[in-house]
User: What shape does this take?
Amino acid sequence: MNSILLEPFASEYLGRLKNRVVMSAMTRSFADKNHCCTGLMADYYARRAQDGTALILTEGVIIHPSGDGYNNTPHIWNKKQADSWKKAIKKVHQAGSKIFCQLWHCGRISHKDYTGGIQPVSSTDKQADGVNRQNNKPFSAPRALLTEEIPGIYNMFLNAASNAITAGFDGVELHLGHGYLADQFFDARINDRADKYGGPVKNRCRFALELTEAVLSKHGPDKVMIRISPSRYMEKLYDWPDLKEMLDYLIPALAKTGLRLLDISCARADYYETSGRVIRMIRPEWPYLLMGGASLSHQQAVEEIKQGYLDMATWGRFILANPDFVSRLKQDIEPLAMDPSILKVLY
Assistant: This one.
């Protein structure tokens, strides 16, 4: 099937790509005991690249042990962990695809079981509601970062980004969404700070903007992407409380940092109710590369691209469930639905 989605795509910042299909970042928890990428993980990514996925965003990779919150996650704070990704990167590149490393700090969505006994940090000292499904325990009560500690978090991201780029990744994606650390600064329901990182919209965006600018200043706009999730489902529709005011300030401010690669995510939600609605709000202020999608059909993705809302379309669960996802698109074959049982194996 011929479509704009599957035609070669030349991006000013990503270069020439096989098509506009992106594998979204999805937590898999299959790293080894040293939090390194394994051969099976390399094969997992390679299969998607070999089938034709143009750009792969890795599962979240933890920037420092104090930012972990999940079982068996890969880390990238030391050379051994970074080098463990070289086999995966090589296989993806041999297939003619590109791969970005998603950099992740969980903030308060964690437990001391995952941070080596260290109290998780956040924008706040308010404990997250609910139970950590990784260990079936309530989330640990976090400690609010001191103002003077925040540059240290940026340095963790900078170290991880440098490790990733040195290992051969085409770039990094800063995970600033889904309720994790940066989102804990964005969200007025959570951020109760009285310093320059809390209160008004400008202050709550400061953490993300300073972090983005710091990584961009070292690695440049062709190697830095961010993910945000201003609207998503968390048992029900969940928007940033002051969504329009936040977007009206944040999007132009991100452009001023030099950022040119933006991923709008909605975390297993209906695209049109969440990301699609946000994308229509920000597109007039964002003329640069924009990706999003979730579980769009082929034709829906084509229409979003043709109408200028998206430059590239992301899929998560469909690509997880279908290593041959691009082949299925080309042959107009319905992709298999996500079956949770396959999460127990590398497929």
User: Anything to note?
Assistant: Residues 201-219 form the longest helix (19 residues). Residues 194 and 203 are 10 Å apart (CA to CA). The mean pLDDT is 96.
